[in-house]
Specification:
about 15% strand, 12 strands, about 375 residues, alpha/beta, seven-stranded parallel beta sheet, globular
Length: about 375
């Protein structure tokens, strides 16, 4: 029997009611006593239906923020006892978890292709990320379990329900997931730390806004704590600060990207073994922090890198895009000088054409 469960509340609705959960109690035995759960799982049949033991393939589309979300979901699943498999083993996986991206039509089309392949193979499917959050009525999602961008801390619950033949929909707007959740890095040398979700823009062409919503920033102390923990890990060589617009960080929690960067740099190892990288920022809000950002980019433990999508050098196009700046009036002459300082002193990895366009937009 398929049970459709909706969760559209703004607050945490908690676990599924006991009446709709599949509950299996594992009895203790002398042979099981004293051994870890992982050791017990390894002895189970690979096609076991015991909750918390099945194999799961996780497919991720999209940006660094999406990759981080997948890493958090994989961490929770592995900690619970599920076995994560690589793409080469996906045909044997007992569930496919697809973390989707909607920023461009080709990305969403690729998600639809994977979903179709999963359905054809008879796989239980759980679709997470921006596609279900932004367009839950998309044809390819019909009848599937859906996990929103703010519900990644309930992935174990969603997987259990899906494997039990239920359709679970968790798309409610909730508080930000904890940054201290278990995590399995796709690249063991790179820690991705989300700064926030959503943005303050209203670009007419953007689908991500419908999925990630309005700006919601993590508290700076939570971010700095995560950065410090990652920097202390001997395997981590890079820490990426990611969000939909890093320049807007903190405006909703009384902080700023300038303050956060200074605090993050302070907890990096002084020997330079772990480097910090700042993610994408839109022009409007980063203008207020160019001096501070340029100074941070000069630090030996920070990548001299800045990703600024100027989108267009045409005022008419920018107006239709509702980008909130113009080629001629997006800033002052001082902004160009300060940006040039950042480009030169920080040696930002910005293509020449992009640097020229950005300087034009800030002039």
């Amino acid at each position: 029997m398929t049970i459709d469960i909706e969760d559209l509340s703004k607050e945490d609705a908690g676990p599924i009611s006991s009446s709709s959960q599949l509950v299996v109690t594992l009895q203790s035995s002398a042979s099981r006593k004293g051994r870890s759960k992982q050791e017990q799982v390894e002895e189970l049949d690979p096609d076991s239906a015991v909750p918390g033991t099945q194999s799961i393939w996780v497919k991720t589309f999209g940006c660094a923020h999406n990759v981080s979300d997948s890493e958090y979901m994989m961490g929770q699943l592995q900690a619970y006892g599920y076995r994560l498999v690589s793409e080469s083993e996906k045909d044997s996986a007992q569930l496919w978890l697809i973390n989707s991206c909607t920023v461009k039509s080709p990305s969403q089309s690729a998600v639809a292709t994977i979903i179709a392949a999963g359905k054809a193979a008879g796989k239980p499917l759980l679709v997470a990320g921006c596609v279900p959050q932004g367009d839950r009525k998309a044809a390819e999602l019909k009848g599937l379990s859906l996990l929103g961008v703010g519900a990644i801390d309930r992935v174990v619950e969603a997987v259990e329900a899906t494997l039990a033949g239920q359709q679970l929909v968790l798309l409610g707007r909730r508080k930000l997931p904890d940054l201290d959740l278990p995590k399995v890095r796709k690249n063991q040398h790179v820690e991705i730390v989300p700064l926030s979700t959503g943005c303050l823009g209203a670009c007419t062409y953007c689908k991500t806004k419908h999925a990630r919503g309005q700006l919601g920033s993590y508290r700076p102390e939570a971010i700095v704590r995560r950065v410090a923990a990652a920097a202390a890990d001997p395997m981590v060589r890079e820490v990426w600060l990611s969000s939909e617009d890093t320049g807007a960080y903190g405006r909703d929690v009384g902080s700023s990207i300038a303050e956060l960067l200074a605090r993050c740099v302070a907890v990096l190892p002084p020997d330079g073994r772990t480097l910090l990288r700042l993610g994408m920022t839109n022009p409007p809000f980063i203008l207020q922090h160019l001096d501070a950002v340029a100074e941070v980019l000069r630090h030996p433990c920070v990548f001299s890198y800045l990703h600024v999508p100027v989108q267009s050098g045409s005022d008419a196009v920018l107006l239709r895009m509702n980008r909130e700046y113009t080629v001629a009036g997006g800033g002052s002459a001082g902004n160009t000088q300060r940006l040039s300082f950042a480009l030169a002193a920080g040696r930002m990895l910005l293509p020449a054409y992009a640097a020229t366009a950005l300087q034009a937009a800030l002039t």
